[in-house]
Structure formats: structure tokens, C-alpha cells
Design a protein that fits this description.
The complex is a heterodimer of chains A (566) and B (560).
Chain A (H helix, E strand, L loop, with lengths): L3 H10 L14 H17 L7 E19 L2 E21 L2 E2 L16 E6 L5 H32 L18 E3 L9 H13 L9 E17 L4 E18 L5 E10 L8 H19 L7 E7 L1 H12 L6 H4 L20 E5 L5 E2 L2 E2 L16 E5 L2 E2 L19 E2 L7 E2 L3 E6 L5 H15 L3 E13 L9 E12 L6 E3 L2 E4 L2 H5 L2 E4 L4 E9 L2 E9 L2 E10 L19
Parallel strand pairs in A: 5-7, 9-18, 17-24
Antiparallel strand pairs in A: 1-2, 1-6, 2-3, 2-4, 6-7, 7-8, 9-25, 10-13, 10-17, 11-12, 13-14, 15-16, 18-19, 19-20, 21-25, 22-25, 23-24
Helix pairs in contact in A: 2-3
Chain B lengths: L17 E4 L10 H16 L10 E17 L2 E18 L1 E2 L2 E2 L3 E2 L8 E5 L6 H32 L15 E4 L9 H13 L9 E17 L4 E18 L5 E10 L8 H19 L6 E8 L2 H15 L6 E2 L25 E5 L5 E2 L2 E2 L16 E2 L1 E2 L2 E2 L19 E2 L7 E2 L3 E6 L5 H15 L3 E9 L2 E9 L5 E4 L2 E3 L10 E15 L7 E19 L20
Parallel strand pairs in B: 6-13, 8-10, 12-23, 22-28
Antiparallel strand pairs in B: 1-8, 2-3, 2-9, 3-7, 4-5, 9-10, 10-11, 12-28, 14-17, 14-22, 15-16, 18-19, 20-21, 23-24, 24-25, 26-28, 27-28
Classes of the chains: A alpha+beta (566), B alpha+beta (560).
């Protein structure tokens, strides 16, 4: 084991021998990108059947260290460094270009003139430029081909409702360089720490699988565009997480998990906190195993803060992404509701990627520039219950000609408008105890024998397309029944929240003074991007739940090997 | 040399391989991985039983433990480099009995693996391993019961009368090699791979290139409930060159060259690898300037690698995985028995070429054979297998899945670690009874061309499937060669094996992964002479060209 640290140190050192501290002298990678960009954008401008009017390169250098442990032993231990390239090509003109929607095709920006490649991760300009050249040629050809298709498509389909351009005019192109460094880690210490923590699950034979993981991920992005943007910006994502899984005798998979996020190692909790949280999760899982099933129900509920944050992210956030107001294939729930009430009047919602902390807690959705080179900005979405705006990238929509810095993607995807840090706030709040008292009051008013408290919710799915019902479904992981007659709360299981989105937001009766942060990775058309959602606990007068569909698998036949009598 | 992150050093105690059969020898006492496998297998055999349903009649546990690394570079710069330790395991459960069980059947809508796989503690922690084996066994057993029920229903529905056994009975075998594994010197190989990738800076005709190194070293253990125990040490180093470009008419041209070595000692010096890289690059670059052939009927000379590829397509593919599987989905023909099963005893090749598979050979005239193995994936010892006698087919690659003609395994039950074993090749040796020096084959072809009044004959030097990648015209008049781009064979069928007219004395060793549709690739070798085929038909490819790049390659832009 004594060689381990040395090995990893080498692993880190090898990748970017010339990158460190080079910003002042002029970053050679940016220089190579700039050189190939200048050559391509000038020479390709009139080379094809349609003019090339925009070209951008984004590289993302990812360095990732991952550890995974289970039952006291390491199961994975890896470090990887790679560079990804996204090439964005636009041909035609701002008003109408190759990225225009292909109506009636189901797919949307599948081949809109961009490509993703794994490219040389070193600074060697010749090798980098060779990769940029290949990628540009492929993206340019794809853009020309798609441009022909969208022109024909427009000619043969009905006129569009939203005739705003395909690409916005923005202010002066941004120039900025910052660098995030991969932290100095005592990897052996982390290895033994994870082993110890993962061994905590070993004494509980009802746990059928468990694990503890550490992920340290540096994403270092560079961006150059034919409009003159030149950026370098980095984010560090550190995540410690654990999960434990079991199954009920009637075949329902149940699990508890927890993750801790930060951009500094000091953001992670102490061993003492972790041990306490793990013990609580184990107790929760045990309670879930014997918890009764809930019958379909409609009535008042409390969404605890983190659950409420997920709820807002899924049900509200995705529906105010700019492209969903424009694409003809979208349901456009909120498109025509500007200035109208969409949420109870004391609630406001904004998305602010410029914040990296909320009341001291790390926010994973923070960034300085988006993936179209636009500075991150706060987007006001709801003010006093009234819809005020949308999340916007450089695809203009009716009434909103400019981006508000929410163009995001995972490398390899076309950029669309996405959330960053979605923050739900209430103009009047009450302590949680009071919120619970209000729930009991509401139960009495509605003459219901019990209400539900959603303590934890995993991401669900939400359908925003025009073809489907405008419904949503999220997966509650930990739910309590609160009885009107004062009996103690009871853990229940097997419920899914269902319903139609607009209705539920208007039914928020009260909010707690306990905002909390949910950090996660959000998946959509442009891939997985790090996000945060913040909300206080919310009392909702009516919410519908249905029975969850479950597997037919039985619990394991034999008990886990250790501790079993031979 | 410190790449073996967190793996314990190979023990220095035992140095001898234990081989036994027909009588159990105790497993090495200090091997905690074997102990975890054995203990959990014993428990599962005794007690894994659902309600009143039968328990497993056969269990296989396999564990692969070691370190792996991957380095990739293009045009003189690294793209990726990583090394990490791993431990993978797989569990296979059989319910029913040897005559009829849950295997050799492909249920629709879910994977046909009669078991599961997972990863676990790479240091081989006893509790962690047993826990994972327990969890995989439980799922695999339940899955096996479900598949067996479906298979019974399938048999009844289709009124299948002739049923072969599902699993042959074989004597238990034991082979325990000493533990050994090698590390990788990552910085050294990063330098070497980077340098190899820079070779392509001398070839302006190549648009895109990459050099990759894949390394794996470790121990594979297999235990089954009939008493078979295997522990073998494995190391492999693979260096792969990839290049792609477009011919002048825009047709895409891509080729790759893989070199395999069973250990660092076998890897040649950098100078030799650089020469390989240059030879490969030149071959691809040649195609760019190749002329095309509208139509050709005449002799074809398959040289070296192309000859091996010819035998792979013409013979090996037709005798691999002879046990066809029942597929619940009637449209799924992927797992049908291969065509030569019905040609046993019939003539398939010229009588003067002999075909045999010899997996136990480690080297051919000093060159390591990638198809070498001692024990197959079902724990059956590898054996020499005679495939043809005087041109007549007498053997097929057999695993423990019987067919009408062969009831027993011949030690060719092979698959990648995560795959299902089926009858597959190891090292095919093609032996000509009569042969001529390699250079004479060209002269023979020129003579044939003159006789047929053809301007030229065709030489093929590499293929993808049976489609030539590197091909050349050999002019009858003056013996000059000229590259050919974008041609394909028409209507080859099974005829060409019986139309071979000459073979070279020189034998070429082709190491590769043998792929088969629906199956996993297995390491393989073909040792074969270059061959001249009487007559084959070629035409211009049906593939469509693509536009050439709009701009010149930035590196070469100012240089030509």
C-alpha cells in the first residue's frame, strides 16, 4: 500500500505538464483554439452552400477521482483526466439557421451542426488543432445538411407562432480567465475513512446492498467564439455520499441515501456527523421495511424543505426553460401566463447561478459563464406569485430577445436553457412547529383523518411535451402519516405524487422558516448538469398520491453470509 | 513501477502449478478469494432453495482480479491515461438437470445470462466477496427458475421432440497456478505511446489517427460445484494503431493494427514499434492514391494477415458455437447453429490444407500466440482439435453444450469474462502439405493472368470481414503493384476454400479478438500461409463517397 500515494501523484502530474500558471503568459490551449477558430471561421464563411456566421469551441477538461467502498473494503479507486470538445457551428443567419426546429420529427437538435470528441488532453498545439479541424469539418458538413432540411421543413409546414430569431445578439463578447485547482487530497486517509464508514452497514443483515463513495471532480472549461469571446473558467465538485438498500417482503425496493456537496474539502461533514446521519438512515430504512402501504389519497400535505425544493425543480423549473415556450412540440404550460398568478401570492422564485453559497451551504448549480459564453445572471421567474420570466439561453423567444446566462450542457450535447440554483422564497414564514399545527388545522377543516409529510423525495420525471398529459410524477422516499386525532406519526411507504402542475402551485397555504438546499445533477436534452434547488417547507392544501408500482422480486432467500449460522 | 494501486503484492510462497483431475486436491489455504468462493458456494448448494422449487444443480463462480490500464494518444499528444485495480465476479446458476436446464435458451425481453455479474473488493476482502457472491447467487437462482419455466413452455408450445442434453458431464479438473501479476510503468508508456502517435505527423494523407495501449494483469479464478477449481495468471498488453482518411474520390478508408503480447518481456523495443507504426501508416496512406476497379474476375492472392482473415471468415465463423439456441422471439436468428454443422464429413476445403486448433501452443517460432489458454471458461482443460482431414470437416468447436454429433466438450468453451461460453476458437493452425516460397505466389498469379489474358491480378493484404481494406493490383506484364481503393467481393459463398491453388512456405501469425454476432469476443490466433485462390469476383464498392474536408489539415496546410 505504500506506493499508492506516489502512483496517484504521478497520475495527476502527467496530464497537463505545461498548464499550471500559464494564464498570465497566455494559455497555450486557448491560443491553439483561437488559431484554429480564426482560420476556420474566415475560410469557411463562404465555403459552403450557406454562409457560416458563427463558430465556437468549448473544451472541458475533466479530472475526476473516485473512491467506492462497501462493507469495509474498497471496490473502486480511480483517477481519470480527459478533455472533451464541443464545436458549435451556425450557418444561415441569426433569424433562421441550422438549429431551427425540425417540426414533426420528434427529435429536435440531434444533428444541429455540433460534435463532441475526446481530444488531446495536453497542450501540444499541433495535436489539438488537428482535432479541432476534424471536429469543425464534421460539424460544418452536418450544419449545412441540416440547414437544407430545416429550410424545406419550414416551407412545407404551417407558420410558427413564435417567429423570434434562432440566435440572439448579445453585448460585447466576454473575456475572462480563472482557474480552479484540483485539491490536494490525502488519498490514503480517504481510503481508510471510506472503508470505516462503509463497515457501519455490516451489522445490519436487513441491508441488501450498501456503499459509500467519494467523488472529486474538476471541470475546467475554455470557450472561444467567432464573436470574440475568450473564456476560461473552472468549477470543483466534491461529493461524499452513501446509500443503503433493502426490500420489503412484498417485493418493494426501498432505499435511503445521502450526499454532501462542496467545492472545498472543509465543506464535507465530520465523521461524527456522518456516523449520526448513517445511524438515522439505517433506522429510517428499518422503519420503511415494516411500514404499511398508503392507499390512494388526496388531501393536505407538508413538503419538507428539501422535498419542496425537488418538487419545484421538477414541476416548475423545467416548465420555464426558454425552449419549452417556443418549440411547437411543447405543451407550453406557462408560455402565455406572463404577469399572471401561477403560484400562491406569497411565493417568489428565482434562479441565480452567481451564488455559490446559500446561508453558508454550498450550491452546486453555481457558475460564472454559461456554455454559450454569456455571464451567469439572476433570472427572476416568479414575483409575489406572478410569472415574471423564463430561463433563457441564446435562443430568443417571443418578448425575450436576449439570453439571461442559462445556456448549459454536459459535454457532447447541444446547449439549451437550464436551471442553475433555483431558489424558492416566501414573503411570510412560520416556524416548522407552526406549519405542522396549520396542517392539523387544515385536516380538521377538510375533515380528513390524516395528512402526509414528505420528508425526502428523489428526482422524478415530468412530461412537458404536447403529446403527453401535462402531468408529473416524483418519487417520495420517506413519508409520514400525521393523524388528526393526535396519534404518533407513522412511517408509510408506496406512494407516488401525481397530478397536474398548475393546480398544485396555487394551493400552497404556508411556508416554513427553514430553507434547505438540495444539490443534485439534473438530466434533460442537454445532458446532466450540476444544479441546486432551495426551498422552505411548504404546506399544500391538496395533493394527490397514488400507489407506486413495484417489482415482484422477493427478498433474498438466505441471510447475508456473515453472521449466518452455517 | 508503482501502478498496482492498493493490490497486495503477489505472494512469494508457492511457485509451482498444481494440476489434478479425478480426485480433489485442497485449495491453497492462504487464498482468501478462493475461500470466500468455496464457503459461499457450499452454503448456496445446501440452502439456496425457494419454497418447494428445486435448488441449483450446478453453480459456477468466477473471479477476475488485477489491475488494468489504458493510455491513448493522437498526433503526438496524450488523450487519456489511467490505471486502476479491479475485481469482477460472475455467478452462473443452473436449475433442472444435465439433460434439460435453464441454458441454451434466449428468453425474449431480458438478457439471456443465466446469472449475474458484479464488482467487489479489489483487494479480495473475504466478507465483501462473500456478500457480493451471495447477492448475485440469489438473483441468478431466481432468474434461472423463471427461465427454466419459460423454456419448458417453449418446448411444449413448439412440440420439440429432439432434445439434446443441455450440459455435458465432464471430469472435474484442477489447475492452480502461482499468483503473479505485473505492474505498468505508466510514465514510461505514456512517453512511448505519445511518441508512437507522433509517427502520423509524417503522413499528410491520413486525416485522423490514434494509438492506444490496453493493459491488464491479474488472476482469474473459477470454481464449480462439480469440484473444478482453476486459478490462472494472465497478463496482456495490446497496442493498437488506428487511422482513417478518405480516398481521392471521397470514399472513407479506415484500418487498424493490433499487436498483442503476453507480458512486458515480449514487447519489442520502441524502434520496432515505431517501424510497425510507419508500415501501418504507409499502408493506409497508399489507399488514398489507389485507383478503383469496376469489375474483376480472376485470381486473388491473400497475403499474410489477409490470408488469416480469409480463413477466419471462410472456416472459423462457420464452425463456431455449433449449439444453436432456442430463441423465444421467433425473429431472433442470431443464435442459430452455424452453416457447417450440417456439413460434417463433407469436403469443405482443398485436401492438401490441414486445419487444427491448438490452444495449448504458447508460441509459434518465438511469436506469442494470443489464442493460447490452458483451461477454458467452463473449467475444461484445453485440447488440440482436428477440424479437417483430407479437406473433409471432422471437428467443430465444442463447449459443454452438446449437439447431435458431439456429446462432449473438446475444451473450447470460451467467452469474454462477462459472456456465456460457447464453442469458439483458440489458435487455428493451417498446414499446407505442399507449399512454395512466398515470392513465388506472385509469379504464379502473373502466369495465371497471362493465361487468362488479364492485365493484372489482385493482392489483398488486410480485410474487414471479407471486404478488402488494403488491396493492390499486380500487373502481369512487369510485376509492378498499384494500390486499389473501394472494392468488395461478390458472391464468394463457401467456394473459395475449395479453390485454393497454392500456399506459401512462410507462415504468418495473426493475433486478434475473434468476434461472433451475439457472442463476446475471445482472444485468438490464426497461423496460416499466404494463399492464392483460383478465381474470385470483385466489384467497385456500393458505399457512397463523402465530400473531402473543406480545409486542409492545419499541420500540413503550409507544408505541401
Amino acid at each position: 500500500m505504500q506506493n499508492v500515494a506516489a502512483f496517484w501523484a504521478l497520475g495527476l502530474a502527467l496530464t497537463f505538464p505545461a498548464a499550471a500558471g500559464s494564464a498570465a503568459a497566455g494559455d497555450p490551449v486557448l491560443a491553439a483554439m483561437q488559431d484554429e477558430l480564426s482560420r476556420s471561421s474566415s475560410k469557411l464563411a463562404r465555403a459552403g452552400t450557406a454562409p457560416l456566421y458563427y463558430l465556437a469551441y468549448e473544451t472541458t477538461d475533466v479530472k475526476e477521482f473516485r473512491l467506492g467502498a462497501s462493507l469495509g473494503a474498497l471496490e473502486s479507486d480511480s483517477f481519470q483526466a480527459s478533455r472533451y470538445l464541443d464545436t458549435d457551428v451556425r450557418v444561415g443567419a441569426r433569424q433562421f439557421d441550422n438549429t431551427h426546429e425540425l417540426k414533426g420529427r420528434g427529435s429536435w437538435m440531434g444533428d444541429a451542426g455540433r460534435s463532441r470528441d475526446r481530444v488531446p488532453a495536453e497542450t501540444d498545439a499541433a495535436a489539438l488543432r488537428a482535432a479541432l479541424w476534424q471536429s469543425t469539418d464534421a460539424a460544418f458538413k452536418a450544419a449545412l445538411e441540416r440547414y437544407t432540411k430545416v429550410k424545406t421543413n419550414r416551407a412545407v409546414t404551417a407558420e410558427e407562432e413564435d417567429r423570434s430569431p434562432d440566435f440572439s445578439e448579445e453585448g460585447p463578447a466576454a473575456r475572462h480567465e480563472d482557474e480552479a485547482d484540483f485539491p490536494v487530497l490525502d488519498k490514503d486517509l480517504w481510503r481508510s475513512r471510506l472503508k470505516e464508514l462503509s463497515a457501519l452497514f455490516k451489522t445490519h443483515p436487513f441491508i441488501y446492498d450498501s456503499g459509500v463513495g467519494l467523488e472529486v471532480r474538476l471541470a475546467d472549461r475554455r470557450f472561444v467564439s467567432s464573436e470574440g469571446a475568450r473564456l476560461r473558467t473552472g468549477n470543483l465538485y466534491i461529493r461524499l455520499s452513501y446509500q443503503l438498500i433493502s426490500r420489503t417482503t412484498d417485493g418493494m425496493d426501498i432505499y435511503r441515501s445521502r450526499s454532501y456537496d462542496g467545492d472545498r474539502l472543509s465543506d464535507l461533514p465530520s465523521d461524527e456527523t456522518l456516523r449520526g446521519d448513517i445511524a438515522r438512515s439505517v433506522a429510517e430504512l428499518k422503519a420503511l421495511r415494516s411500514a404499511p402501504l398508503v392507499e390512494p389519497y388526496a388531501g393536505p400535505v407538508i413538503l419538507k424543505s428539501r422535498a419542496a425544493a425537488v418538487f419545484f425543480h421538477e414541476i416548475f423549473g423545467h416548465r420555464v426553460e426558454g425552449q419549452r415556450q417556443k418549440r411547437e412540440s411543447e405543451g407550453q404550460t406557462f408560455t402565455k401566463k406572463l404577469g399572471q398568478p401561477v403560484v400562491s401570492s406569497f411565493i417568489s422564485v428565482q434562479d441565480d447561478p452567481t451564488l455559490d453559497r446559500y446561508r453558508g451551504t454550498f450550491l452546486r448549480g453555481a457558475y460564472r459563464y454559461d456554455d454559450e459564453g454569456v455571464p451567469a445572471q439572476r433570472a427572476t421567474l416568479v414575483e409575489g406569485g406572478l410569472l415574471r420570466g423564463f430561463l433563457l439561453n441564446r435562443m430568443p423567444i417571443k418578448g425575450f430577445p436576449r439570453s439571461n446566462g442559462h445556456g448549459r450542457r454536459e459535454p457532447g450535447h447541444a446547449t439549451v436553457a437550464r436551471m442553475g440554483n433555483t431558489i424558492v422564497e416566501a414573503s411570510r414564514t412560520v416556524p416548522y412547529a407552526e406549519l405542522r399545527r396549520l396542517l392539523l388545522e387544515e385536516l380538521a377543516r377538510q375533515k380528513k383523518p390524516f395528512g402526509l409529510v414528505f420528508d425526502d423525495i428523489s428526482g422524478g420525471f415530468t412530461t412537458t411535451g404536447r403529446g403527453g398529459v401535462q402531468a408529473f410524477k416524483v418519487q417520495p422516499l420517506l413519508v409520514y402519516k400525521v393523524y388528526a386525532d393526535g396519534r404518533p406519526d407513522e412511517t408509510v411507504r408506496g406512494v407516488d405524487i401525481v397530478g397536474t402542475p398548475i393546480a398544485s402551485f396555487m394551493k400552497i397555504l404556508a411556508a416554513g422558516d427553514d430553507p434547505a438546499v438540495f444539490n443534485g445533477t439534473c438530466g434533460a436534452e442537454s445532458g446532466g448538469v450540476p444544479v441546486s434547488a432551495v426551498s422552505p417547507s411548504l404546506l399544500i392544501s391538496e395533493m394527490e398520491v397514488e400507489k407506486v408500482s413495484k417489482s415482484q422480486a422477493k427478498p433474498p432467500i438466505l441471510p447475508p453470509p456473515y453472521g449466518d449460522k452455517p | 513501477m508503482q501502478a498496482l494501486a492498493a493490490l497486495p503484492p503477489a505472494p512469494s510462497g508457492e511457485r509451482n502449478t498444481t494440476i489434478a483431475s479425478g480426485g480433489r486436491v485442497p485449495l491453497p489455504a492462504d487464498d482468501s478469494v478462493f475461500r470466500a468462493m468455496q464457503d459461499e458456494m457450499d452454503r448456496s448448494l445446501r440452502r439456496l432453495r425457494m419454497d418447494d422449487l428445486p435448488g441449483p444443480y450446478h453453480l459456477t463462480y468466477a473471479v477476475r482480479q488485477g489491475t488494468q490500464a489504458h493510455i491513448s494518444a493522437s498526433f503526438g499528444a496524450l488523450e487519456a491515461s489511467q490505471a486502476s485495480p479491479f475485481l469482477d465476479m460472475k455467478v452462473r446458476v443452473r436449475v433442472g438437470d444435465h439433460s434439460f436446464d435453464n441454458t441454451n435458451f434466449v428468453p425474449s425481453g431480458f438478457g439471456f445470462h443465466p446469472g449475474g455479474q458484479g464488482n467487489a473488493s479489489f483487494a479480495g476482502d473475504y466478507d465483501n466477496l462473500r456478500f457480493t457472491l451471495w447477492s448475485l447467487s440469489d438473483v441468478a437462482y431466481k432468474n434461472a427458475l423463471e427461465v427454466l419455466a419459460k423454456k419448458k413452455a417453449f418446448r411444449a408450445r413448439h412440440q420439440i421432440a429432439e432434445v439434446f442434453d443441455d450440459f455435458s458431464r465432464e471430469p472435474e479438473s484442477m489447475r492452480v497456478e502461482p499468483l503473479s501479476w505485473s505492474p505498468i510503468d505508466l510514465p514510461l508508456w505514456e512517453r512511448r505511446v505519445r511518441e508512437l502517435s507522433a509517427v502520423f505527423r509524417a503522413y499528410p494523407d491520413i486525416q485522423e489517427s490514434r494509438v492506444q495501449l490496453a493493459f491488464g494483469s491479474g488472476t482469474k479464478r473459477l470454481l464449480d460445484s462439480e469440484g473444478t477449481a482453476v486459478r490462472v495468471a494472465q497478463t496482456h498488453v495490446e497496442i493498437e494503431f488506428l487511422a482513417q482518411t478518405q480516398a481521392r474520390d471521397g470514399l472513407r478508408v479506415g484500418d487498424s493494427l493490433s499487436l498483442y503480447y503476453p507480458g512486458w518481456d515480449d514487447v519489442p523495443p520502441q524502434e520496432t514499434l515505431l517501424a510497425e507504426a510507419r508500415r501501418f501508416a504507409q499502408g493506409v496512406a497508399d489507399v488514398v492514391h489507389g485507383s478503383t476497379v469496376e469489375a474483376y474476375v480472376g485470381p486473388v492472392l491473400f497475403e499474410d494477415q489477409a490470408a488469416a482473415e480469409f480463413f477466419d471468415v471462410q472456416l472459423v465463423d462457420n464452425i463456431s458455437s455449433p449449439r444453436g439456441l432456442w430463441a423465444e422471439d421467433a425473429g431472433n436468428r442470431v443464435f442459430d447453429a452455424p452453416p457447417f454443422v450440417s456439413r460434417l464429413g463433407m469436403r469443405v476445403s482443398v485436401p492438401w490444407l490441414g486445419f487444427a486448433d491448438e490452444p495449448l501452443l504458447e508460441r509459434w517460432e518465438g511469436t506469442p500466440l494470443f489464442g493460447h489458454y490452458e483451461v477454458d471458461e467452463e473449467g475444461v482443460p484445453a485440447q488440440r482439435l482436428e477440424l479437417t482431414r483430407k479437406g473433409k470437416l471432422v471437428g467443430l468447436y465444442m463447449s459443454r453444450a452438446p449437439i447431435r454429433e458431439f456429446k462432449r466438450s473438446n475444451g473450447h468453451g470460451r467467452a469474454a469474462f462477462n459472456g456465456e461460453p460457447s464453442g469458439r476458437m483458440g489458435t487455428l493452425i493451417v498446414t499446407p502439405e505442399k507449399s512454395v516460397p512466398r515470392a513465388e505466389l506472385k509469379e504464379r498469379m502473373r502466369a495465371m493472368c497471362r493465361e487468362l489474358e488479364l492485365d493484372y491480378g489482385v493482392i489483398v493484404r488486410s480485410m474487414g470481414g471479407l471486404t478488402p481494406i488494403r488491396a493492390y493490383k499486380l500487373y502481369a506484364a512487369d510485376g509492378r503493384e498499384e494500390p486499389v481503393a473501394g472494392v468488395e467481393f461478390v458472391g464468394a459463398g463457401f467456394r473459395p476454400l475449395r479453390d485454393i491453388v497454392a500456399a506459401s512456405k512462410e507462415m504468418y501469425v495473426f493475433n486478434f479478438y475473434h468476434g461472433q454476432q451475439g457472442r463476446t469476443p475471445v482472444p485468438a490466433s490464426i497461423v496460416a500461409p499466404s494463399i492464392l485462390v483460383q478465381e474470385m469476383e470483385l466489384r467497385k464498392t456500393e458505399r457512397k463517397p463523402e465530400r473531402l474536408p473543406y480545409l486542409k489539415h492545419p499541420y500540413f496546410a503550409g507544408k505541401r
